[in-house]
Design a protein that fits this description.
Layout lengths: L16 H38 L6 E4 L4 E6 L6 E7 L2 E6 L3 E4 L4 H10 L4
Antiparallel strand pairs: 1-2, 1-5, 2-3, 3-4
């Protein structure tokens, strides 16, 4: 009495294979754009930071993840910990992985910066 009679609808015509490809094309395009705009540059920055962290040596100025700026006093090759002078007679030990930025340019970075400058 309260239920209306349901009639079966005609089956939709079979869609061609090309329409399925065209319906996924925008999704694929979005994934490609995200890869080149977001993911790839982030991977390149992470790789560059990893290289700079491995190349930290005595005398480099660094910024830790907590925002402390200091000068590296002792950095053993391959060691996970480095000693950083943050003030006169104040030396702290930090993990190499907590260093967020290396402020001192290396010689290779300086050469790259010279090459990128336009000639006047």
């Amino acid at each position: 009495m309260f239920i209306a009679t349901a009639y079966a609808a005609d089956a939709a015509p079979a869609a061609g294979g090309m329409s399925a490809i065209f319906s996924f094309a925008p999704l694929v395009l979005i994934v490609i754009v995200f890869y080149f705009i977001l993911i790839r540059p982030q991977q390149q920055q992470a790789k560059a930071l990893k290289g700079r962290l491995a190349g930290i040596r005595r005398g480099d100025k660094v910024v830790t993840g907590g925002g402390i700026i200091g000068q590296v006093a002792k950095a053993a090759e391959g060691a996970e910990e480095i000693e950083v002078d943050i003030a006169p007679n104040v030396r702290v030990t930090v993990l190499r992985s907590t260093v967020s930025t290396v402020l001192t340019e290396t010689k290779a970075d300086a050469k790259i910066a010279e090459v990128k400058k336009p000639a006047k």
